[in-house]
Amino acid sequence: MIISNFVAKNCVIPEIQAKSKPDAIKELTHLLFDKKKMDNVEMALEQVVARETTESTGIGNGIAVPHARVPGMKTLACAVGRVPDGIDFMAVDREPVKLIFLICYPPSQQTTYLNFVATIASLLGDKEHFDALMAADGEDAIFAVLEEVSETFNTHQEETIDSYNADPGIEEVQDGNADILLLARLQLHEEMLATTKSGKNKIKERIESIRSMVNPRILKHYDKLMKGRSPALVPVEGDTCQGCFMRLPSKFVQEVRNDVTHIHTCVNCSRYIYVV
User: Fold this and answer.
1) Residue 228: pLDDT above 90?
2) Beta 240-241 vs 233-237: how paired, if at all?
3) For residue 200, what is the domain's CATH number?
4) Are residues 104 and 201 in the same domain?
5) Cβ atoms within 10 A of the Cβ of 15, count?
């Protein structure tokens, strides 16, 4: 994933003025609204704050990824804010956050969002990349660094994928984790196909390759869900299904977390689920 494809230059703040976590979230959310990346800023801000009360999105290494699922948006959008002196985000490593990626995305791009966050974590887990972003002078330079490291990372990933004729070994691992991984890849590629302007044929080929490895019974239910209540595969965060936003019994969530031999569905909306 090219991170810079979802970040506009005018949505980069070299130095956030806010001095607290709530104010920083508000500043970046309003920036996306001001730059016409979304229409309902009140809903977005409410969703972001609600997510933070469940668990901090400070993922460590000086990075935070506050986020919200916002109906009405066409594609994922991200505002980037830099905090040179750091800000308390109650991060998992308890260290100050210096780079904030505020993400808003439509319900149809749940997997795109998850992949986006995973890419950020992988990219900026490299201290050299993190330091380059912190040292960049101004929004144009920050964007250029983000674009360069993202494209380099993506090229490496593409070369790794293309070195295989198919996903190696997955078809030989008959367990729930393998099923979830296949569905996650399938859903991501379908989201990419719906939003990309180039490379559609290659994406279609990968979709067919992945579909050929999914259990027919699981695939049938997946297709049914995608037609009626997309996305078909969603995470469970804080015991809450991110598809229907209904709280699940804690005992059931623990069973889903521990049982790697089966794929599970939400007891309320029937979507495939996994625990993050």
Assistant:
1) no
2) antiparallel
3) 1.10.287.1490
4) no
5) 10
